[in-house]
């Protein structure tokens, strides 16, 4: 009987030791983070604005994180393929994602996704990218009103490429359709690079895309309008949709970095500190400017507030144009 008690006590002590050791190991792992390279999921194909800007961030990351930041592209479904994957990764801080607004808000509101807005623990926001409509330089569409007139004459015939359903560029199309009482034929692509190639090849008539992507094309394209409240300094001669009579067409793609829900607070704080320092690096900012990036740097607290505001805003917007 005594031996049995001794065995039970010994077994209990071994169990407690293993438990404490495990907790200590987890704590030490968190304290030593990061101890290996980190991945960042980009839910779009290579060559587009999100991918281009994420790769510039990755170039500078090792200096501030102490580990390599590797970009992993998982395109498809307007970002849904990549973010559905991200929703199942371990919340250990070694797989991050580039988030895009309004995409990660609007897509779960209207469709069946594995992610919700709460799946994303925002770390920092790095930029914004207004939506613009563009056509090839030799297009028969001369300006926005000409596009609207042609769409009224031939409903559902003018093709407009974009980066996926219910991303910012698609939302701009829906807003213009509602404002101008027209019907366009929207064509989703895996990313802006494919959409632009289709437009330049005259396979689609118009591109609803990011300013940073289309601005870099120079004389290859004719910009029709920009979805900002005021004219943009990159393209001061380009009228806003509002100036042309469509004040509700205001839309951009905002970009940032998020960890998976459930990631330890200590890791999130380390990431926020490192990325906020990176985002103020003068050489980094110069490289982002060369890429056509429009910076909007927000820390975690401000992004969380923005998430909350935008969720309510986009829900009302979708309802206002008849989408539930």
Characteristic terms for this protein:
single chain; 324 residues; alpha/beta; ten-stranded mixed β-sheet; 10 strands; 44% helix; globular
Provide an overview of this structure.
By secondary structure, the protein is α/β, with parallel strands linked by helices. Strands 1, 2, 3, 4, 5, 6, 7, 8, 9 and 10 form a ten-stranded mixed sheet that branches. The model is unreliable at about 5-30 (pLDDT under 50). The chain starts with a helix and ends with a helix. The protein has eleven helices and ten strands. Helices cover about 45% and strands about 20% of the residues.
Please give the structural blueprint.
Elements: H1 2-31, E1 38-42, H2 49-65, E2 69-73, H3 80-86, E3 95-101, H4 103-110, E4 120-136, H5 144-153, E5 159-162, H6 168-180, E6 185-188, H7 192-200, E7 206-210, H8 211-215, E8 221-226, E9 252-260, H9 265-278, H10 282-290, E10 294-298, H11 300-320
Helix pairs in contact: 2-9
């Amino acid at each position: 009987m005594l031996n049995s008690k001794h065995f039970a006590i010994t077994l209990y002590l071994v169990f407690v030791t293993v438990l404490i050791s495990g907790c200590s190991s987890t704590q030490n792992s968190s304290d030593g983070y990061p101890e290996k390279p980190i991945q960042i999921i980009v839910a779009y194909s290579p060559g587009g604005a999100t991918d281009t800007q994420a790769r510039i961030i990755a170039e500078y990351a090792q200096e501030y994180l102490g580990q390599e930041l590797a970009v992993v592209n998982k395109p498809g479904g307007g970002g849904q393929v990549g973010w559905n994957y991200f929703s199942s990764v371990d919340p250990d801080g070694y797989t991050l994602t580039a988030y895009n607004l309004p995409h990660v808000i609007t897509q779960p509101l209207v469709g069946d996704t594995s992610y919700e807005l709460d799946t994303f623990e925002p770390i920092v926001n790095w930029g914004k990218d207004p939506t613009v409509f563009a056509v090839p330089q030799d297009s028969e569409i001369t300006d926005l009103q000409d596009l609207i007139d042609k769409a009224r004459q031939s409903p559902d015939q003018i093709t407009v490429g974009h980066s996926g359903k219910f991303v910012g560029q698609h939302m701009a199309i829906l807003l213009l359709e509602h404002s101008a009482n027209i019907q366009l034929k929207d064509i989703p692509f895996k990313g802006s690079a494919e959409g632009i190639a289709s437009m330049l090849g005259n396979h689609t008539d118009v591109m609803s895309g990011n300013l940073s992507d289309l601005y870099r094309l120079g004389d290859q394209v004719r910009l029709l309008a920009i979805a900002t409240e005021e004219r943009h300094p990159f393209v001061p001669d380009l009228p806003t949709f509002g100036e042309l009579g469509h004040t509700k067409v205001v839309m951009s793609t905002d970009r940032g970095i998020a960890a998976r829900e459930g990631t330890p607070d200590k890791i999130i704080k380390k990431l926020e500190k490192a990325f906020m320092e990176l985002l103020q690096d003068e050489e980094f900012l110069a490289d982002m400017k060369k890429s056509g990036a429009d910076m909007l740097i927000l820390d975690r607290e401000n992004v969380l507030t923005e998430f909350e505001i935008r969720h309510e805003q986009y829900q009302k917007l979708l309802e206002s144009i008849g989408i539930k």
